[in-house]
Structures are given as structure tokens and as C-alpha cells.
Design goal:
76% of the residues lie in helices and 0% in strands. The chain contains 14 helices and no strands. The chain is mostly helical. The mean pLDDT is 87. It has two domains: 30 residues; 210 residues, MetI-like fold, CATH 1.10.3720. Keywords: Cell membrane, Membrane, Transmembrane, Transmembrane helix, Transport. InterPro entries: MetI-like (IPR000515), MetI-like_sf (IPR035906).
Length: 273
């Protein structure tokens, strides 16, 4: 088989796979422009008449805007704190190599391996004692567990930096935190952006922790608002799909503008190493 034929076969296979994967997305989007009856009659057919009532009803509901605001606040604070804690821990582990640090690194690795679901109950009981359950602050604290993931990725990248930078900072009289903040942090910006993209998408789309932590309707995140659109007995599926699409749009836009950082940030450390 020639190279040209292989490329054609591969292209056809990839296009077919992409179309197959896109079917659920097409199903959701196309039914947001239908009524319940139209969807039941022809779920995969294009709408015979463009019905915008679902979007008008969703966008006129103040609860959706409140949930977006809650999600933005939680995501922003959680990701910033995760990156700061993860980068600070990685800096300490890379700069100060000792037996104690190796033990701490092994403990952190164990924390990374243990499923987060297994620690939900003890963490929840701890937050109950501090009266942080059903608060956005408590939810942000729960997301700080993601700092371990940030730590491992940032540590690998940070090891590629020349140690002479730290020594030069010390000779200039800078303290440990000053070296980290003014010298190291700007140099690890590519991996910070990459990890930030990963963590933003995780926190924004997470369903488990908000379900466990949040019960007050005014504090719901956008994912909980989507879940709330499903009724116990009957569900307006076009309305549910419309809420899902509205909740998905910000992450689609975010991914389109940041996808290049995902690959470039991860490869930068390998190229330097």
C-alpha cells in the first residue's frame, strides 16, 4: 500500500470516527430548537421550524446567571490556589533535596494514587466541624486536593530549569520566596498555563463535589443547575438539552482559545530536558 493510499484511508477513517463521535452533540444541539412533541416525533431530523423558545426561557431565568457566577468564582479561586500551592510545593521539593523531602514526595504520590471518592466522607465531616458545608468557600477548599496533580506536573517541568538561577538569586540577597516569586515563577509560565487549563475544565465540569457540598439553590454551580433541570417524574428534554448547551458554551470557547497551550506546555519541559 502506497503512502498516498494510506493517507486517504486514514483520513476517511478519521472523518468517519469524528462523525460518529459528533452524533450525540448533534442530537443535543438540534433538539434545543424543537418542542417536546417535535423531538419525540423525529429526534435526529433537523427542526422543521426554528423554535427559540427554549433559549428564551433559559436565558430569562436568573438562576442560570447566578449559577454561572458561582461557578466562575469557585473555578477562579480553586485554580489559582491549586497552581500556587502546587508550584510552591514543587519548588521546595526541587530546590531542597533531602531524605525528608523524598519521604514527603512518596506521601504525596500516595495521595495522588488514592481515589478522591474514598476521602469524601472524612473531609466532609471535617468541614462540618468548621461550618463550611453548603458554602462556596468549603467547595473551594475541597478542590485544593487538585494541588497534588499540579505539583507533579510542575515539578517535572521545574527540574529542567538551570539551578544557577536559584544560586544567582541567593548571591543577590534574595530570600527563598523572592527567588520563587520573581525568578522561578515567570520561567514556569508555560506549564502553569497548561495545568491551569486542565484544572479549569475539571472544576467547571465537576459534578461530584458540588453535589456533596452544596444544597442551597442560590449556591448551585452551573453543572448542578443542569442536573436540576431533570424532574423526578417528567422531564422537558429539549429544555434540559438547552440548559446543557448553555452550560457547555463557555468551556468550548475556553478550550478553543487554550488548546495550543495544552500540548506546547507539556512538550516544553521535554524539549528543554
Amino acid at each position: 500500500m502506497t503512502t498516498t493510499v494510506r493517507r486517504v484511508v486514514l483520513s476517511v477513517a478519521m472523518i468517519a470516527l469524528a462523525c460518529f463521535i459528533a452524533i450525540p452533540l448533534y442530537y443535543i444541539v438540534v433538539n434545543t430548537f424543537k418542542t417536546q412533541g417535535d423531538m419525540v416525533a423525529a429526534p435526529l431530523a433537523p427542526p422543521s421550524e426554528l423554535h427559540l423558545g427554549n433559549y428564551q426561557q433559559v436565558l430569562s431565568d436568573p438562576r442560570i446567571y447566578r449559577s454561572f457566577l458561582n461557578t466562575i468564582l469557585v473555578t477562579a479561586w480553586a485554580v489559582v490556589l491549586q497552581l500556587f500551592v502546587g508550584a510552591l510545593a514543587a519548588y521546595a521539593m526541587v530546590v531542597r533535596t533531602s531524605r525528608l523531602n523524598r519521604i514527603i514526595g512518596a506521601v504525596l504520590l500516595l495521595g495522588f494514587i488514592v481515589p478522591g471518592q474514598s476521602t469524601l466522607i472524612p473531609i466532609y465531616r471535617t468541614l462540618v466541624g468548621f461550618q463550611l458545608v453548603d458554602t462556596l468557600t468549603g467547595l473551594v477548599i475541597m478542590y485544593l486536593g487538585g494541588s497534588i496533580f499540579c505539583y507533579f506536573l510542575i515539578q517535572g517541568y521545574m527540574r529542567t530549569l538551570p539551578y544557577e538561577i536559584v544560586e544567582a538569586g541567593r548571591l543577590d540577597g534574595a530570600g527563598a520566596f523572592q527567588i520563587f516569586w520573581r525568578l522561578v515563577l515567570p520561567l514556569i509560565k508555560p506549564i502553569l498555563v497548561t495545568v491551569g487549563v486542565f484544572q479549569t475544565m475539571w472544576v467547571w465540569n465537576d459534578f461530584l463535589l458540588p453535589t456533596v457540598m452544596i444544597s442551597t439553590p442560590e449556591r448551585r454551580t452551573v453543572v448542578l443547575q443542569v442536573y436540576n433541570a431533570v424532574s423526578e417524574f417528567t422531564t422537558d428534554w429539549p429544555m434540559f438539552m438547552t440548559v446543557s448547551v448553555v452550560a457547555l458554551i463557555p468551556m468550548v470557547i475556553f478550550f478553543v482559545f487554550t488548546q495550543r497551550h495544552i500540548v506546547s506546555g507539556l512538550l516544553a519541559g521535554g524539549v528543554k530536558g
